[in-house]
Amino acid sequence: MKFLRVYLILFISLFFTQILYATHNRAGEITYTQISDLTFEITVTTYTYTLSNVDREELEVSWGDGTYTVIPRHDFIELPDYYQRNRYIARHTFPGPGVYEILVEDPNRNYGVENIPNSVNTVFSVKTTIYVNPEFGPNSAPVLLNPPINKAAQYRLFVHNPGAYDPDGDSLSYSLTECTGENGDPIHGYTLPPATNYIGIDEVTGDFVWNTPPDTGKYNIAIQINEWRDGIKIGSLIRDMQIDVYETDNMPPVNDDFNDWCILAGDTLETYVRSTDLNYDSIVHIGAGGPFLFESNPANLEEISSKPGEVVSRFTWVTGCNHIRKSEYMVLISARDNHPDINLVDIDNFLIKVIGPSPEGIMLNPGNAFMRLAWAPGECNPAKYLIYRRIDSLDYTPDSCVTGLPDYTGYEFAGETTDTMFFDNNNGEGLVQGFSYCYRIISEFADGAQSYPSEEVCGIIAPGFPIITNVSVLVTDESEGKILLRWAKPDRLDTVPDADGPFKYIIYRSDEAYGMRLKKIDSIAGLDDTTFFDSGLNTSETQYSYEVALYNDTPGNRFKIGNPQLSSSIFLNLEPFDNAIKINIEKNTPWLDNEYIIYRLNNTTMNYDSIGYSTKREFTDTKLANGTQYCYLVKSIGYYKIDTNKFYTENLSNERCDIPEDFQRPCPPGLKVRSSCDSLKNVLTWNNPNLTCADDVIGYKIYYTNHYEATLDSIDKIMGAENTFYEHFPEGTMGACYAVSAVDSFYNESDLSNVCCIDDCAYYELPNVFTPNNDGINDIYLAKNPLNYVEKVHMRIFNRWGELIFETEDPMINWDGTIKNSNKKVSTGVYYYICDVWEPRITGLEVRNMVGFIHVYTDKGSGINLNE
Q1: Rounded to whole angstroms, how far apart are CA atoms 222 and 237?
Q2: Counting Cβ atoms within 10 Å, is residue 864 exposed (0-12), middle (13-18) or buried (19+)?
Q3: Which of 301, 394, 414, 736 could anchor a disulfide with 389, C-beta 3.0 to 4.6 Å?
Q4: Contact by Cβ (8 Å): 388, 453
Q5: Is the CB of residue 312 less than 8 Å from the CB of residue 274?
């Protein structure tokens, strides 16, 4: 309580005497770390002038949600040239998803800043924007590793890079923005510092270049760093920094050119950096960047030689799996001279990309129309493997910085897996026998970083024997279905040892597509008859596969010749939709089908008419009448290969029928919500799906909850697709989460829209004027507490000496001006209050700290009606 009293005396005396000339702030920024969905830990970093008599033990933070917190200083470090780095750390839980601007203000800026009018009376402020959105995943702000403390020289090139390192590997962009003052607003009259040639920032690397300062003095700039993930902006922060420009004969040191590097995880990067100085001053190297921050195997910068005017250091980094990431690491090298006048710096950077190892030990096992791949698990545990395929081999050696597989290599994406095995059947189309298929595999890590491609492995799917040329459905029926099976007559049997004949074909059938339940169904003697009609089948509902085995049928010398092929019938699977039917073509054949002709039954002629074709194994027939039955069959056209020769084949599917119905849910609307705090209502607006992605929406359902983690409940229905506006008057709290769904003419309900949470109304206000003079006007100090949303407060009022004169937990306050523990009224003056307010928010009951002043007038005739 003693500290609070001293603090109040100091604060109030500053208020009364208008002493607002604290001249100490030189730079600052706000960074954050996400703790949970809605909770963040922020770090306010300021750089102050140690010779000033002002030293902030605490700062007030505006969280952007109507709440404020005074946070104590966590630590400080004294830096060269009378700089002090201060850190203030606090945690905060936001009321719900949204965009929040965190703001810290501190009077004031330093005296005499050339590009800020009246800088000594201008508030210093920094701000950071947090995008609270669980859909983005965990996100922390980039940390700025290069302190803004370097000096500039008149007519000398000045470079600063904030050294931003994003722990999540998100992309960063940089721009210059205006310095801000009170309320985080741009300072009126602020301009960029003058330059003889150029002043600006590289939006990719973050290098701020001032070429060159024409005048001496103090200047301020602000660098905005935007954070991007998958092309979406997910946060931004601003570094405000002061640059002091001096007149000097000193020339800054100069770094030799640096190279960028790409390195395989597990390898060691060793490179040398050299800097020289025309004044023959001694030089030191300072390294900064993400590689220096790792607890395991951090990078190291070691000076190996130094003499007047030159220094050489060795950068070493033993990389590992934990260093793999999609974005490059930036390493900043600062060369700082030691001159009797002022110390100057040259800053340059180089990039390091740590690339994951590719899979090894790939083995191929060819099948009938597929390849089985297996490989050894890698040391770095990728999130998944990407498999690429091409026909015939390619001699390809990637550049050291090229990951994945470029399109020009001709490799096609075959699929992905989290396992170390993959079954490639060309997405069900089957691989063509007789071709050489070559594979490379890429490891992909959690952030999307890809490895180098593996070594190429090739294999040939050898043709089976005999070669099946047709499996065609002739009759579709549940019990009397019929399938034509045909194969090519084998030749070159004279090259088979002991194959003297006679010969026999054994025919096997399975009641599914992959030969998992093969049973012998018949046999044919001799070689010439290569056609078989399989009857008595349920071709309406069952897909069949066949194998034809050739045997040398000599008594006492009976053996199978070659490996038989497997081939299935073509089977249709229909999916009815609103006024449409999707035809899915299922098959497992040793030949390649490159075209499917779609037929639909004509109910007048009872013939199947061609209605279209597809090169894929699906086709959607549209503009149909709901409730009417439609029947289809498909003819495939493809080819198989014997040696170097291609032979074409045509096969028919079974017939399938279905009825289109509107089972398809409409697409969800896109929702926006705003609060009208004065009217105690939330306003919802959304788009009409009929204008974009639907055609029969007839209404909407509104969903609501007053707690962020609670289930949304339906609270209302709205008829009419054009009615895309809704007002909700919640009870108990304005904080709410909403979603909207669309309902179509068949009463199919869409998925819920995006969930919008809003909680930006301040329910509780305290007047700043009070007139307890018994004139009947404003004689009782009352809080504004609409609808009694606030149920609990802790209000304390102090005089200018820091003495507590009133205290209550009554949400309405109800102070008549009497001093605590007495019957005496306060005198006219200004009083300071601290009020903790327990407000209902969508995260539950949250405490908001309010501070301010009350102007008390006790003279007769001074009544002020606050309601007028």
Answers
A1: 10
A2: middle
A3: 414
A4: yes
A5: yes
Amino acid of residue 476: T
* DSSP assignment string, 671-706: EEEEEETTTTEEEEEE--GGGTT-S-EEEEEEEEES
- DSSP state string for 107-151: S-BPTTBTTSTTGGGS-EEEEEEEEE-GGG-S--PPEE-S-S---
Return the residue matching tokens 């003279």.
859
- Which of 356-370, 542-556, 658-672, 758-772 reaches the highest mean pLDDT? 542-556
Rounded-to-integer distance, Cα 24 and Cα 84, Å:
10
Instruction: Enter the DSSP assignment of 9.
Output: H
How far is CA 263 from each of CA 2, 287, 361, 380, 791, rounded to the nearest angstrom? Answer: 60, 19, 22, 15, 61
**Beta carbons of 270 and 314 less than 8 angstroms apart:** yes
Q: Please check whether residue 96 is in contact with residue 757, taking contact to mean a CB–CB distance below 8 angstroms.
A: yes
Q: 3-state class of 16 per DSSP?
A: helix
- Better pLDDT: 694 or 456: 456
In this structure, the number of other CB atoms found within 10 A of the CB of residue 675 comes to: 18
| Bridge partners of residue 200, in order along the sequence | 209
Residues 6+ apart with CB under 8 A from 292: 145, 298, 299, 300, 301
Is the pTM higher than 0.70? The answer reads no
Q: Residue 733 corresponds to which amino acid?
A: T
444: nearest Cα among 404, 396, 388, 402: 404
Residues 6+ apart with CB under 8 A from 710: none
Strand order in the sheet with 804-808: 769-770, 844-856, 829-841, 792-798, 804-808
The span from the CA of 405 to the CA of 387, in Å, is 10
Residue pair 106/19 in contact by the 8 Å Cβ criterion: no
| pLDDT interval class at 867 (50, 70, 90) | very low
Q: How many other CB atoms sit within 10 Å of the CB of residue 749?
A: 16
Question: How far is Cα 784 from Cα 730, in angstroms, rounded to an integer?
Answer: 18
Tell me the C-alpha distance between 264 and 399, whole Å.
12
